[in-house]
Structures are given as C-alpha cells and as structure tokens.
Amino acid sequence: MPDIKHFDPDTTLETVARLFWRQGVASTGIQDIVTATGLNRSSLYATFGGKQDLYRAALHRYIQDHSQPSFRQLAEDSRGLPAIADFFTALIEVRCSGEYAQWGCMVANAHNCAGNGDPEVRSLLIRHHQQLWDALHTALATAQNRGHLDPDTDPDASADLLALLAYGVNLRSRAGADPQELKKAVTAALASIGARRAS
Questions:
Q1: With 90 as the cut, is the pLDDT of residue 142 above it?
Q2: Residues forming a β-bridge with 194
Q3: 11/96 Cα distance (integer angstroms)
C-alpha cells in the first residue's frame, strides 16, 4: 500500500528554504525545521532525506524562484546601462526593506558558510554565478552597442566587477548597511564603466 502524505511537500520546502535563507545552514538545526514545518523527523527524512538533502533542495528552490527570474529579466532588457542600474536598485530594495530585509541572499550566504563544501552545493553556486555573470554580460553588450560604455571598457572585466558588487550588496545588506551607501557604490561602479560625456 503506498505511503499517503498528509502534508504538501512543496509548501514544506518553501518553509524550509525561507528558514535556511534567514538563519543560514550552520545555524539551523533539524529541530528548527521540525518546529517551522510542524512535521516530525520521520516524515521529513522519508520525504526529503537528512538536513543536507533539505538544504540542497532549498538552495535549488531559491535559485529557481528568486535568482533566475531576475537574471532573465536583466538579460532580456534592451535598455543597456539603465537596465543594470535598475537591477541593482531592485536588489538593494529587496535586501534592505520589506519582508526579506537583512536576510541577504541565500546564495551569497552559502558562499560564506561550511555548507559549500558539499560538491552539489558547490555546483549550484558555480552555476548561479555563471548565470549572474551571463546576465550582466548580456546587458553590458547591449549597453556597448547603444554607446553607453566608455570605449576602453572591457565587458568581461566589467561583468566580473558587477557580479562581485552584487555579492557585496547582498552581504552588506545582511549586516544592516545603509541602502543609500549601497546605492552610492553602485552609482560609482556604473560611472567608472560608462561613456564619458564631452565637456
């Protein structure tokens, strides 16, 4: 006779993803997960496996639901440099205000914890970084075609710079950084690669 689940695994995974996102994997114990989901350990283990299995699934869920739509929107935006500016404005807003304020980014948090020793987690982090870089590089190529970039700007190096800036925003916002200071840093970075106006 098949096992009948009396809970929604998808809703449970969303709850667990939010818990790992807010607290980090190192600070989240299996009892925290039991308390947050209202499920007993045997139900969790039977459905998802152990804590690390849950963390991998939650990280994948976060990337799918939060990161990839944002990257896709940036890559498909045809405005060039304004699209990149708006990407960072939205990033700072979601990191510094509202429901997820000071939660940081689950991926950036994963880079900063012992959980990234897991080969599958490392693979997710590498793929996420590549997707971020690709989206930024696509937007920079559009900006270059529209004459928004200084002729000496290297799109590859600039994508590296902006990807690192995104990680910095995520980490600093978790520590309660002033959003205006983060915006100033973004403005300075974009000014450093933008076309110089004739005097």
A1: yes
A2: 149
A3: 26
- Reported as half-sphere exposure (CB side, CA atoms, 13 A), residue 89 has a value of 8
Strand segments (E) across the chain:
none
The alpha carbon dihedral of 19, 69, 144, 159 has a sign of: positive
Give the whole-angstrom CA distance, residue 156 versus residue 165.
Answer: 14
68-122 pLDDT tens trace: 999 999 999 999 999 999 999 999 999 999 999 999 999 999 998 755 579 999 9
Decide if 3 is inside a domain. Answer: no
Tell me which of 45 and 198 has the higher pLDDT. Answer: 45
Classify residue 199: in a domain, yes or no.
no
Q: At what angle do helices 9-23 and 41-48 cross, to 10 degrees?
A: 100
| 47-50: Cβ within 8 A, 24+ apart | 47/5, 47/9, 47/12, 48/9, 48/12, 48/13, 48/16
| Domain of residue 78, residue span | 9-193
Q: Is residue 198 part of a domain?
A: no
* Average pLDDT value for residue range 40-60: 93
Residue 59 in domain: yes
